[in-house]
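Take a record.
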Amino acid sequence: MLGLKLPTDPRWVNIVEKNIEEILTDHAYCEQKAASTAISLIIGFPEKSELVKEMTALAREEMGHFNMVHDKILKRGWVLGRERKDEYVIELMKFFPKGGSRQTHLVHKLLYAALIEARSCERFRLLSEEINDEELSEFYRSLMVSEANHYTMFLKFARKYGDKEEVDKKWLQLLEYEAELMKNLGKKETMHG
C-alpha cells in the first residue's frame, strides 16, 4: 500500500528496544518537524486554500502527537533530549534539484512529505508488531493509521497541484532513490535512520 521499494530490516526493532529513550526523543522531534512542515506549506502557499485548511489541521494533529510522545517520555521518568540530525531527511532532500518554479517547489515538498510519512507509517507498523513493550506496541499501532492518512493526503495534493503523469513519474523515481538510501540506514535508534 505504501509503495516503498525496500522494507525496513526487522532487526531495527532490536536496536530500538535497547534505546527506548533515544527513539522516543527522536520520534518527538519528528512530530515537531512534521508540524513545522505543515506550517511552512501554509506560509509558502497561502493562496492554496484547501492546502492551508488541511495543513492547519495537520499541524495541530502533529503537535498533539508530539505531546503524546513527550508524555511517554515523562511517564518513564525521562526528559526530552536534544534534537539530533535526521540523516534520512537530509539525504532524501538531495533528490530534487534546487530552483524551479513555485509550483515545482510545492510538488517536490509534497512528495518529500508523502515519502517521510510513508516510511514513518512502515516503521510504526513494524514497532506495533515486533516491539516487546506492550504499551509502545499499542501506541505505535494507533499512530500508524494517522501516518498512512498523511501519506495519501500529501500525494493527493502533489497530483492536484502538478501534472499527474509527471508527479507519478517523479514519485516512482523518489521511491527508487529512497530504497537506495535505506540500504545504509536502519542501524540507529532513530525513527528513520
Q: What stands out?
A: The two ends are 22 Å apart (CA to CA). The mean pLDDT is 94. Residues 102-130 form the longest helix (29 residues).
